[in-house]
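U., I forgot to send this yesterday:
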Amino acid sequence: MPDILRIPPAPESPLSFPVRVRMRDGVLLAGDVYLPGAPDDADETPGDTILIRLPYDKAGVYCFIPQIAEYLMGHGYRVVAQDVRGKFRSEGDALLFVNEVDDGYDTIDWITRQPWSNGRVAMWGDSYYGYTQWAAAASGHPALKAIAPRVTGTALGEPVRRDPAQRIRPVEWGVTYMYPLTQFFDNDMLQWEPDWSRRDFAAQAEEFMSQVGARGLSYDQWYPNPVLLRRFPNGDPFAGRSVPVLHTIGWWDNCAPLSWADVAQIARRPNWDAHHHLRIESIDHESFQLLEADGDRVEDRSDEQIRALLPRTLDPALAFFEVFVRGNGSASGLPRVSWNLAGTEGMRESASWPPGGTRRITRHATSDGGLVATPTADAAELRWTHDPADLVPSSVPDAFSFLLHLPDEAGLGDRADVLRFDSAPLEADVDLAGPVGARARISSDGPVMDCFVRLLDVAPDGTALRIARGQVQLLDADGAGDAAGHADVEIDLGQLGYRLRAGHRLRVHVSSSDYPEFLPQTGTGADPWTWGDTRTNTQSLVVGGPGGFALTLTVLEGELP
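Result:
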């Protein structure tokens, strides 16, 4: 049986007063209201309000909302922090994602009727409480003047859709089914870990629910027969009235693919794109930075460290709200894209992403482990063994805090089940800014093949930092393809803004697993979450020739070898 730590609501902040907000179906959601000058001299005159709706405890230490609210009050804002439906002090069912549109609308409506509100509302927050902003925006409430979602996406947490007609699809995260068994199981947070060595995750989920004496509504909705309820009106988060957005993405955020998918959708919606402002930082999901003092690269931040973090976390949103909520200044004075070139200090500005002046280049893998500008004429097939009993390990214990650990992934390339390709050392610095992708011709003697591609920056001392990644799953991998049984796949490695230093080299790793961050293949086609019979698979990648492995990069400055 797993060890389960139940974390109840933390004491509410003395700077706030508690409220209960009635939703249209009668459910009461718990909130804390912070007014400037509280608690001794609270300003109850009408003013602008920032709403934060989250499932992680509005008063808890994890999200440090009381400190955030205090900082925002110092800039004259009223703040409402609310536990979403079914979480902590709020009533209702703990059902992921699907109630946030209506609950967001009803909460904003309640705010506009309070004597301390002037009818103007903004929203701010990370991850799930970034998602609640997209949901509230989709509700169309006219009082919502601007949002500032960070490290999130409108498809956050959604399981991979199991469409048998779709031969190529994403690889499932290990956290997908764990989230509704931990963060979103009932009102409290339930911390526990499965035995990752057992692999029979579905059985362990049943053991957990038997131990706590209840079933998880969100888990049962998703597994074993997924029912993906509609999150947004008409199923489209951007179908309705648009809202000005300051959209923050982290280069090392594991949820960044979801963010970039939203950027692509917004680009096709002129009404949204007109006031969509993009901010890209060298952070991971938990806001650890690439360039950070060792003393600040700690899991449990002190109150002093939290307060030191607030200006870089909140000031961009405050500048954005000054224009779109308070009407001071002009949107033309705000950068459309503000971004950090990872490995350098400060933020750059551009009119678009990628910035102007970039060019696309392609590098090709060779059979002797090279990464070169011109493909070899003859194709070769490189093989490796996918062994469900000996998987390629994930490089960090928590994918959400990659930069906390800042792992050296060089050693992974020494494994027999990882293909490695290296460029020559750079003669001068090269700045990469834009999309990264790979084309791969692959095959397997198993029914399902996962293909992981990792791009690394290798320093002269041999250490290797992962700077981009992507992965796809190929169904019917041992079936139809070309005459030799191969299938061609395009692998999106996301976006990149990074300075490669002189003397460094690029490296590519290709493998079939990244465990436990991603659920591994059994080798027999058995469901990875349920597990079952396993066997090893022989995988192959073609290099050289017209269909060989190719990596496409976007270069802003400099020349790659």
